[in-house]
Design a protein that fits this description.
By secondary structure, this protein is of the alpha+beta class. It has one domain: Gcn5-related N-acetyltransferase (GNAT) (Aminopeptidase, 3-Layer(aba) Sandwich), CATH 3.40.630. The protein has helices spanning 13-28, 34-46, 97-112, 126-134, and strands spanning 3-7, 52-58, 61-73, 78-88, 116-118. α3 links the parallel β4 (78-88) and β5. α1 (13-28) crosses α2 (34-46). The longest helix is centred in the N-terminal third of the chain and has 16 residues, at 13-28. This is GNAT family N-acetyltransferase. One of its GO terms (molecular function) is acyltransferase activity, transferring groups other than amino-acyl groups. Keywords: Acyltransferase, Transferase.
């Protein structure tokens, strides 16, 4: 099986939106509004400062994606790259797709002078946690808090 990781193009936006909808349902049983996620994905392509997507292709077929966003750290005078919206199609799981995407992002981040990679994972998603630990990532000592705002 041939795995290729590439930077996503605007033509991938619909597939990325569908994968985000599937990921939200699988991980949180959350239903995303297709119009909102569609606009959200397209906004990344319209404003590169927001980040970028990578797409994984297995034998020429797109089977997954992830989003990278940036967080400035004044303590370290550099950017953390956040890995978000990770999705691998069920038929491509356990084939090294995420491992390939992660290695690609890590190499890109190192080349860009980023100070680290971060991601968040659901507390109950032990399988993903084991995968991240297996890639050398360490669990942080922070809790994440959120305050949704009215739009």
């Amino acid at each position: 099986m041939s795995l290729e990781i590439r930077r996503a193009a605007e033509q991938d936006a619909d597939a990325i939106a569908r994968w985000n909808i599937a990921m939200a349902w699988e991980t949180e049983r959350k239903t995303l509004d297709p119009a909102t996620i569609g606009r959200g994905v397209k906004a990344v392509f319209e404003e590169p400062r927001r980040g970028f997507y990578l797409v994984a292709e297995l034998d020429g077929t797109a089977v997954g994606c992830l989003l990278v966003t940036y967080e400035w750290s004044d303590w370290r005078c550099g950017d953390f790259w956040w890995v978000q919206s990770v999705y691998v199609a069920p038929e491509a799981r356990r084939a090294g797709v995420f491992r390939g995407m992660y290695a690609h992002v890590k190499a890109m981040a190192e080349g860009a002078g980023a100070v680290g990679l971060r991601l968040y994972v659901e507390l109950e998603n032990e399988r993903a946690q084991a995968t991240y630990a297996g890639l050398g990532m360490e669990r942080c000592h922070y809790f994440m808090y959120e305050a949704p705002l009215e739009s």
